């Protein structure tokens, strides 16, 4: 059975066909977050630390760390800040150090810059997930040696030099190519987590059906775990969280084993917990029960505790 193991300093998370769905928190990403990018430019990591703590408290099992910030003001003083190959490696190290100081969960190191990926691998405790490699020849030659060198699993995104195909057959072929090239480097299939790419349902009516079929095929034919950027499916539509909350259990039912998503949204997290229960990935339903148990009023014992104590007193009498 395919098991992709990621680790922090003291915690292990297993992504697998018979494991609870792995929630990878997406919030530590300055792309499209002007306030966060401005804070990072001032070496202020307050929001990063807050996001790390909040995501873990809400159920994130792994945290994605993306260093794709643009430092507009610093560019004026130092032209090097216009170069992602300079900015991202430096920022990645700082982000990982700040996050690991406040939470102890495995990390997903996310960058398009190989130097940032390697800096992340050097700074991360345990065994992080590397995000990502694509089917482009140049990217394969740059990233797969890092995966082998540091013995880490990697997200494989199903696009190549021709871009993102709307044809699911092409996306499967790219994923297969990456798995085969990884094997040439001695990287096993269980350390490849394929992202088959979720298209926006508002632009492509069959986007959901395509990804469900791809997930089933990737599992059956390549034996790999899968992930996705879950919110892509609802892009441009109203009530995005409603769509995401329907999409995630359907993807889980098709065999998807993880997603990069926002765990702070209770509607989506509740849908995942219910799917875990229904897929028999929640032993004895304990995670569902814990999440939905009525809170104990202040000053009262938990349900059943008082009766147990009274029963013991009666027996002693």
Automatic annotation (TrEMBL):
One of its GO terms (molecular function) is methionine synthase activity. Residues 293-317 are annotated as: Disordered. Keywords: Cobalamin, Cobalt, Metal-binding, Methyltransferase, Transferase. Gene3D superfamilies: Dihydropteroate synthase-like (3.20.20.20). GO terms for cellular component: cytosol. It comes from Albimonas pacifica. It comes from the Bacteria. Belongs to the vitamin-B12 dependent methionine synthase family. The keyword Ribosomal protein does not apply. GO terms for biological process: homocysteine metabolic process; methylation; tetrahydrofolate metabolic process. The keyword Metal-binding applies. It holds the Pfam family Pterin_bind. This is 5-methyltetrahydrofolate--homocysteine methyltransferase.
